[in-house]
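Good morning,

Attaching, inline, the backbone tokens for the sequence recovery test we're adding to the shared suite. The designed sequence is right after.
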């Protein structure tokens, strides 16, 4: 794709495409001049949607991003709108072919000697934040975690709900005085940021979940590996574990997985088992007291300079629209290429959203082993989905389709652009850690929270999350930076958006310019100089994947 700034009201992404993308609302009867091809629009084309550049018959292939993204179910005319009625998902076959992929790295010289201020751990890794983590080995302990969260957050300055508490208090006072609250303007006032007692503790995080017992033993084993990955995460300073005692996920299993992941693990880790405690109250009191002592020690850790090669950045999209693959995703992809050129790690996940982009990913794998592992994981995953009457082709949500992502291959090929163009150095199954500099593929569902949960488990210390429709998704241990694909969303949902890439659509910015701006923001976020909106809102989403069918 030509990455120069665009000023036209339509876009042809790849020379071989037989559809164009509307960058703004186009009216029926308007004539579009695409090189020597004159196209009269047969109907209104909403912004973000696609229209055909020639007459085509049923069964013809629809090409976008230069690859097969669908097949026609009925004949269409030049200038007609692409819809779910006339176009169905289709993707090309893929396999290993020893492609010898060649990559031209971008010029990253202006970032070569840059550093960020991170927290150095004993194993030499650097975190972008300093969190204390509470982990339940089973859902039975969620209530106890809630009690501890309320106590610690409220008293140590980490609460984010106090403005709503005050708002409710004002409503109650008005009601008690006989005032008609339906006509009162009692909008929640902005809360002044409370001073945290522990200046070097960026947050106290809680991994509430619904697993650890019931289900299958395999579910418990996967959850154990996931929780161990979070405990070992570079952004985590210490851990408090709450166990019931009789559950499938025994504390011993978790500790074994932790040592397997990191044999030299030496962070403070406190374990409390309810069935061995005198009472629930004693359990909670002991956990709070011991954790408080741990916070005192963790607060002594301070930020220090680290090269950008120490960053591990996950890239994700959610609430995608027809601009995702044109603005935010390729901009993040350019950032990813800059990071790879600087020796950092980049993680691209969401395997259902690589459907249609498989061959390019296979061709980019630096080893046959990595390519074959990717093929195996993709085919196994898709087979599980098809076995229950679903499949990757059913991934697009109603919101995706409404905003122009008609087939899964269109959505997926645009989504894959977040990973940039660098070689794939490794392919990771769920909960496996990223160990190699460069781009790694991580097997996760496409679901926003399941995917970000898996990225953090692989070691992401920051997550770049693009959205066209708006989603508040965050993560407990990996600060999540939200990027809008269009400026309308950035203005409407500015409380959750950190970066607006809409300038690419209007022609005010190039993909390269935006990519460099994103990297600058990453450096500031990694240093604690700016706090992403998801972190400020306490959006600590955590959903373990049970390895069942989730798209």
């Amino acid at each position: 794709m030509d990455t120069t700034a665009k000023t036209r009201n339509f876009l042809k992404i790849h020379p071989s495409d037989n559809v164009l993308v509307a960058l703004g609302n186009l009216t029926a009867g308007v004539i579009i001049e695409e090189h020597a091809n004159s196209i009269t629009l047969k109907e209104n084309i909403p912004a973000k949607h696609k229209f055909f550049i020639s007459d085509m018959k049923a069964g013809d292939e629809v090409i976008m991003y230069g690859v097969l993204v669908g097949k026609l179910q009925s004949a269409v005319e030049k200038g007609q709108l692409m819809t779910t009625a006339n176009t169905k998902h289709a993707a090309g076959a893929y396999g290993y072919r020893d492609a010898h992929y060649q990559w031209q790295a971008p010029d990253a010289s202006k970032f070569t000697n840059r550093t960020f201020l991170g927290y150095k751990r004993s194993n030499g890794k650097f975190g972008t934040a300093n969190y204390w983590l509470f982990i339940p080995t089973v859902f039975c302990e969620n209530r106890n975690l809630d009690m501890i969260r309320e106590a610690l957050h409220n008293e140590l300055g980490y609460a984010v709900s106090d403005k709503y508490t005050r708002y409710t208090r004002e409503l109650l006072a008005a009601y008690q005085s006989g005032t008609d609250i339906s006509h009162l303007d009692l909008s929640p006032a902005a809360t002044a940021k409370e001073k945290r007692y522990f200046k070097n503790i960026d947050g106290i995080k809680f991994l509430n979940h619904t697993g650890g017992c019931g289900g299958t033993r395999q579910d418990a084993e996967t959850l154990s590996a996931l929780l161990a990955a979070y405990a070992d995460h570079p952004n985590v300073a210490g851990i408090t574990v709450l166990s019931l005692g009789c559950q499938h996920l025994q504390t011993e299993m978790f500790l074994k997985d932790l040592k397997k992941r990191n044999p030299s693990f030496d962070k403070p880790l406190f374990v409390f088992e309810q069935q061995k405690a005198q009472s629930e109250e004693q359990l909670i009191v002991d956990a709070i007291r011991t954790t408080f002592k741990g916070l005192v020690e963790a607060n002594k850790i301070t930020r220090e300079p680290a090269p950008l090669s120490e960053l591990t950045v996950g890239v994700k999209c959610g609430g995608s629209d027809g601009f995702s693959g044109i603005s935010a995703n390729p901009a993040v992809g350019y950032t990813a290429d800059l990071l790879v050129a600087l020796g950092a790690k980049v993680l691209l996940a969401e395997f259902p959203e690589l459907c249609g982009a498989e061959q390019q990913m296979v061709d980019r794998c630096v080893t046959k082993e990595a390519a074959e592992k990717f093929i195996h994981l993709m085919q196994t995953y898709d087979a599980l989905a098809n076995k229950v009457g679903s499949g990757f082709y059913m991934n697009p949500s109603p919101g995706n389709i409404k905003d122009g992502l008609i087939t899964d291959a269109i959505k997926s090929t645009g989504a894959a652009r977040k990973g940039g163009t660098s070689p794939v150095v490794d392919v990771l199954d769920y909960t496996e850690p990223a160990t190699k500099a460069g781009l790694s593929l991580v097997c996760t569902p496409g679901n926003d929270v399941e995917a970000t949960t898996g990225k953090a488990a692989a070691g992401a210390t920051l997550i770049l999350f693009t959205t066209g429709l708006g989603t508040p998704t965050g993560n407990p241990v990996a600060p999540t930076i939200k990027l809008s694909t269009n400026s309308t969303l950035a203005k409407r949902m500015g409380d959750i958006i950190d970066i607006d890439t809409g300038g690419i659509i209007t022609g005010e910015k190039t993909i390269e310019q935006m990519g460099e701006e994103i990297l600058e923001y990453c450096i500031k976020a990694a240093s604690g100089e700016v706090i992403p909106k998801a972190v400020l809102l306490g959006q600590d989403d955590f959903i373990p994947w049970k390895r069942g069918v989730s798209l």
